Amino acid sequence: MIALLVRFVLGPLARALYRPEVRGVENVPATGPVLLAANHRAALDTGVITFATPRQVKFLGKAEYFVGKTLKGRLMAGFLGGLGYIPVERGNAQAGLAALEAARKVLDAGGVFAIYPEGTRSLDGRLHRGHTGVGALALATGAKVVPVALTGTENLQPEGARIPRLAKISITFGKPLDFSRYEGQDYAPAIRRSVTDEVMYAILELSGQEYVDTYHKRPSEGVA
After folding, report:
1. What's the pLDDT tens digit per position in 142-171?
2. DSSP secondary structure string, 160-191?
3. What is the per-residue pLDDT across 38-82, written as a single tens digit (0 to 9) for each?
4. H/E element, 217
5. Burial class of residue 112 in the structure, from the number of CB atoms within 10 Å of its CB (0-12 exposed, 13-18 middle, 19+ buried)
6. CB atoms within 10 A of CB 194
7. Cross-referenced PANTHER family, in alphabetical order (predicted)?
8. Which is it for the CA torsion 113, 119, 135, 144, positive or negative?
9. Are 174 and 144 in contact (CB under 8 A)?
10. Long-range contacts (CB closer than 8 Å, 24 or more residues apart) made by 94-100
11. Element (DSSP H or E) covering residue 59
12. Could you please report the per-residue DSSP string of 124-159?
């Protein structure tokens, strides 16, 4: 019920209020597994992707957001679930494997999963080196990878603002990338890196950001 509310009520309201510029939405395949790989500019990026994508999208979310016992906690969990979040633990290698497995289940079922290859949102506005999870998922599931560029979302809720503000934002969906040429090589680290770098370059072309070939340091808890 909450998922329907988010998709068919809150989504149209948000689009009418913020009037985001959406380009290339026809590049999102209508059926089959799709991996949306996006740059990450702001905490509200997930909502923007959810409201702009014609298909239901799943994301990973911190497990602690889903364990609240109070009414507020339950409402938060319900809302995040409606947005498409899947609760996962964070902070160690085992948690990282669980996150990839959760994403793989969505793609194996023919769904749409969104990932931020940088691993955290960019605090300096630049596009940073991608982690190879996006490559591992694309190779393991055969999903088409659609690069996504978000622009202006960092202005929706500047630091210290509790309520999102009106701002000019855009979201661009690039042409799907097909990595079937690497079938059977999903466990090769060099291939995962090659696929990831190709995805990051596609995002770079769409976003026009400055690229930095180093991983972005994860900000302190509560900032990402």
Report:
1. 999 999 999 999 988 776 667 777 889 999
2. T-SS------EEEE-PPB--GGGTT-TT-HHH
3. 999 998 898 899 889 999 999 876 656 556 667 766 666 666 666
4. none
5. buried
6. 16
7. 1-ACYL-SN-GLYCEROL-3-PHOSPHATE ACYLTRANSFERASE
8. positive
9. no
10. 96/133, 99/60, 99/133, 100/133, 100/136, 100/137
11. strand 57-62
12. SSPEEPPPTHHHHHHHHH--EEEEEEEESGGGTS-T
Residues written for the chain: 224
Give me the long-range contacts of 133-136 (CB less than 8 A, separation at least 24). 133/96, 133/99, 133/100, 133/103, 134/35, 134/37, 134/195, 134/196, 134/199, 135/179, 135/191, 135/192, 135/193, 135/194, 135/195, 135/196, 135/199, 136/100, 136/186, 136/192
* 35 three-class SS: strand
What secondary structure letter does DSSP report for 202?
H
CB 145 within 8 A of CB 138: yes
Instruction: State the DSSP H helix or E strand holding residue 212, giving kind and residue range, or none if neither.
Output: strand 211-212
CA separation for the pair 222, 120 (Å, rounded): 12
| Contact in structure between 95 and 89 (CB atoms under 8 Å) | yes
- Write the DSSP symbol of residue 92: S
Smallest CA-to-CA distance from 176 within 217, 147, 135 is with: 147
Q: pLDDT by residue (tens digit) across 18-45?
A: 788 999 999 999 999 999 999 999 988 9
Tally helices (H) and strands (E) across the chain. 7, 9
